[in-house]
Amino acid sequence: MAVPVGYTTPQTPLQTLANSGSGDLNLRSMDNSAVAVRVFSLNCWGIRFLSKQCSQRYAMIGDLLSSGEHDIVLLQEVWSEQDFLGLKKKLAFSQPHSHYFKSGVIGSGLAIFSKYRIHDTFLYRYSLNGYPYMAHHGDWFGGKAVGMAILQIGSMTANVYVTHLHAEYCREKDSYLPHRVVQAWELQQFIRHTSTGADAVIVGGDLNMHPQDLGTRILRAYTGLKDAYLETSQFDGCEDGMTLIADNPFINKKELVPFEKGIRIDYILFKGSPKAEILCDSMSTTKGSVPEKPFPYSDHEALTANLRLKTLASQESRLDQSDRDSRKAAELVDLLTEARTEVKVGLHCSERMRYTATRTGAMGLALLLLELVIAAVPCLALGAEQPFPRTSFYLLAALCCVILVTTFLLYLFYTTELKSLQGAEDQMRLAVGGLQERLRGVSVDHTPLRKAPDGEEPFDTEE
């Protein structure tokens, strides 16, 4: 979904849960104890030999984090493991626990540093990551993924996620939109299925999506994650919480059109559980160049959220939430219908490209067979000479072989992309069916289907 020109994120954040009445929460705090957790997130733009002032900026990032003011650090685009090891050495005392998530050809670029011990980690690589032949974009080689770390914060278990989704290189003609929608769908699935036993969930990273984009809405609606920028009553940073601003010297202002001032694509999201409550007391972003330095930490602005975790007693009697659940189910049906439309656009494009690769490969094969027939003429007709120059003949044969190999690889790639898109669309279709049954109040019958009577066609339960 395209954001209207001139759209800005609401500037008035929601009231924090601390100001809500006990009757609305239906929860009771066991005591007044709380754990303050300061979360930091930054896209480091760390492409060695290509990113400007890369080594100097890593030194600045290390100096900032080594002050010990941040409890959890979530970094993206740390493309070199050597740079990660340099940060790890520098942060050995301030954030002694760390993990680097490896994926793809050059790595996922995801890293986490923490004051709290990391008990377990897991990496999920998105099934779609762009196109390998778009080497100048490089997303496919990075193997975009989501990394999870399980931390013990006081008496609470927190699942912390760091992720980086496919970039949006052209908003008007975004050929990667289906990929990013599928990535957002897989991200919410991964978070939902891995955080069921967690007391608190914290997500940070570069989503490459505006607040009102389809993928962002799917992620928040399905998981119940809250946006730290919208939840806090104290914000200090760039206007409208923007994290890609025109004032950043590393930014090409043409990339921000039609949003001249900037966009907000980096987030810190969170949610609690029946066992724990999580609030955002304040949030801040950097504002371009670092004081007393000629350039900023990155081409993105860094985010810092001051969170407060509190344990809760068991839930008391709750009000009937059927109306609220119905509204949420209806919202999810609309979102998934929109998402399926975008995925189907990607499906048609993938099918078209696979057909083109198949047709081109068939033409190359036909030309190669024709050459073989011509080469066999002198053998069949004794005394006949080769009608074509030998060099040109070999060059044309080599070209045919290159065409065959290239189109075969493209056919395999587009088949893989097609299967991934079809799989995501099937999952969304099943999810829509379940939501519609919930809206109708129909209980699902799990008994096996009996054989249809003679002369009658069995119905398809998935349609």
Automatic annotation (TrEMBL):
Mainly resides where?
A: membrane
GO process terms (BP): sphingolipid metabolic process
Q: By its UniProt entry, which PANTHER family does this protein fall under?
A: PHOSPHODIESTERASE, PUTATIVE-RELATED, SPHINGOMYELINASE FAMILY MEMBER
Every Endonuclease/exonuclease/phosphatase domain range: 41-300
Q: Which Gene3D superfamilies match?
A: Endonuclease/exonuclease/phosphatase
Topological category with respect to the lipid bilayer: Multi-pass membrane protein
User: Could you give a GO molecular-function term held by this entry?
Assistant: metal ion binding
One GO cellular component term noted in the UniProt record for this chain: membrane
Q: What is this protein called?
A: Sphingomyelin phosphodiesterase 2
Q: Which organism is it from?
A: Knipowitschia caucasica (Caucasian dwarf goby)
Give the family per the record.
Belongs to the neutral sphingomyelinase family.
Q: What EC identifiers does the entry list?
A: 3.1.4.12
**According to its UniProt record, which cofactors does this protein need?**
Mg(2+)
> Does Hydrolase count among this protein's keywords?
yes
- In the record, which residues are listed under signal peptide? none
Q: Where in the cell is it found?
A: Membrane
Query: Which reaction equation describes what this protein catalyses?
Result: 1-hexadecanoyl-sn-glycero-3-phosphocholine + H2O = 1-hexadecanoyl-sn-glycerol + phosphocholine + H(+); 1-O-hexadecyl-sn-glycero-3-phosphocholine + H2O = 1-O-hexadecyl-sn-glycerol + phosphocholine + H(+); 1-O-octadecyl-sn-glycero-3-phosphocholine + H2O = 1-O-octadecyl-sn-glycerol + phosphocholine + H(+); an N-(acyl)-sphingosylphosphocholine + H2O = an N-acyl-sphingoid base + phosphocholine + H(+)
| Ranges annotated as spanning the membrane | 362-381, 393-414
Question: What SUPFAM superfamilies does the annotation carry?
Answer: DNase I-like (SSF56219)
Record pathway: Lipid metabolism; sphingolipid metabolism; Sphingolipid metabolism
Q: Which UniProt keywords apply?
A: Hydrolase, Lipid metabolism, Magnesium, Membrane, Metal-binding, Sphingolipid metabolism, Transmembrane, Transmembrane helix
Q: InterPro entries, from UniProt?
A: Endo/exonu/phosph_ase_sf, Endo/exonuclease/phosphatase, Sph/SMPD2-like
